[in-house]
Amino acid sequence: MAAGGVGTSAAVTATEPGPLDAPERRQLDVIRRWGTVGALLMVVGSLGAGAAPVFSPLPGTPVLGLFVRMPSVAIGLVWTGVFMIVSAWLWLARFVRPGRVRLATRSQVDRTLLMWTMPLVFALPMFSRDVYSYLAQSEIAARGQDPYALGPATALGVEHPLTMNVPNIWRETPAPYGPLFLAGGRVIAMLTGDHVLPGVFLHRLLALVGLAMIVWALPRLARRFGVPPVGALWLGALNPLVLFHIVIGVHNDGLAIGLMLVGLELALRKMPVVKRGAAPPPVTREELLWVVLGATMIVMGAMVKIPAMLALGFLGVMVARRLGARFSDLVRAAAFMTVVAAAVTALVCLGTGYGFGWTSTLNVATTVKSWMSPPTALGYLAGGLGITLSLGNHTEATIALARILGQAVSVAIVVTLLWKSFRGRIKAVNGLGAGLGAVLVLGPVLQPWYVLWAALPLATAVVAKRFRGFAMTTSAFIAIILPPTGSTFDGRAYVVPQAVTGAVITFVVCVLVARKQLYPLMRRDPLPPTSDYR
């Protein structure tokens, strides 16, 4: 198939891989149990290490309240669970690797995901306090006020229980999320009112809806682009960053990515493969309806978080190639996608009653100046150099300039990827993943879970060993380094080294106790990859 093709492709290997043999199934059971124990440890540790609400019932609760008074122990338990889940995920990689003679089945991977996810549903939020901003913004919407004009402190009052849980930096800022997400949050606020924990749980269920869409779309897209579905699920849905930041952290990125991936799959459902040099068949009404439906889902994802809109551009490229890959086809496809985007955006904005106020709050997150963002870090370095050379403190100006340059570079990268996808030099879905990665990495703000925007689309179309190794290493590293509390330690910096030291010791002891069962997993996989896996 041509690099820019969009239909169902040939299998990665000449023959279908077989199921795991008996020893491998026993090893898979060990991996599952190891990860499940890690998930249970994270749930228990979240009682003292999680981003608990200000008025938490835990301190006065017998037994459970002990973890609140032992933060080092609680955080150590969470980090032990993190080590166990990440190591289990890394061991699982051998049984889903493209080109392997025997692969885990879809049902085996699904059961593994279920075993690791179910305990985490009942954990307190960790790694971030964003869900409390969701609750406050949803309550503002439920009261009939404009969440795009008022922050929680202004709309609800500083003493309101929902406002008190919002980090100080976000208490005065309006909502930066799309109207579709706030419409869902408004329903949750109407059901839960000022009750924090039920609100958190319902928002987590909304995040799980996003996860379910990811699980539905990933294997279908992967099969379409020649990647083993179980490999895509492993790198995507089972990724520790998904478990930690979508399930536990309750970030709405999961819902936006899920809608985006479902939209791509629906749009490509009836789209045939057009071989290079061949005349394209006429577009049928059924095919057109599926494209419109898929594009609509993508725009709905953008109405949760705007980066999903980029997928519409790459879908337009695939449509243009379907029409014949002429420049005029690209113009027609771009116009068609523009009309769909405008129509669906207007329908959502007017239907939810929020109008287009969300467009004025897209830059709210830029108030955060984090070293994790390369342009922001470059701006800090330039400003610091100016101070060192006695040129004055121009840090704010250098940060602003670096961010503008970063965004300009990301636009150039995206345009280049769109053109290469249109010319058939790369798969469009690969261009989408790389483009999202460029936009977010070079953007003014970068959060650990933003990696998923690039990793999940790429998981459906890339089988290269180097990419999967890089994605695996990056995901594992980011999953391990982020503290679970979702906030600073208020002068108690000693808690982190104590917790990490205890977690490392505990993890090593667990490995030693289970070394007989784990030893086969630590050896190199003896089955050689095929030539397609490079």
TrEMBL record:
It is a multi-pass membrane protein. It comes from the Bacteria. The keyword Transferase applies. One of its GO terms (cellular component) is membrane. The keyword Transmembrane applies. GO terms for molecular function: glycosyltransferase activity. Residues 1-21 are annotated as: Disordered. Keywords: Glycosyltransferase, Membrane, Transferase, Transmembrane, Transmembrane helix. It is found in: Membrane. InterPro entries: MptA/B-like. It holds the Pfam family MptA_B_family. The chain crosses the membrane at residues 34-55, 67-92, 113-128, 200-218, 230-251, 288-318, 330-357, 377-393, 400-419, 431-455, 467-483, 495-514. Belongs to the MptA/B family. NCBIfam families: MptB. This is Polyprenol phosphomannose-dependent alpha 1,6 mannosyltransferase MptB. It comes from Umezawaea endophytica.
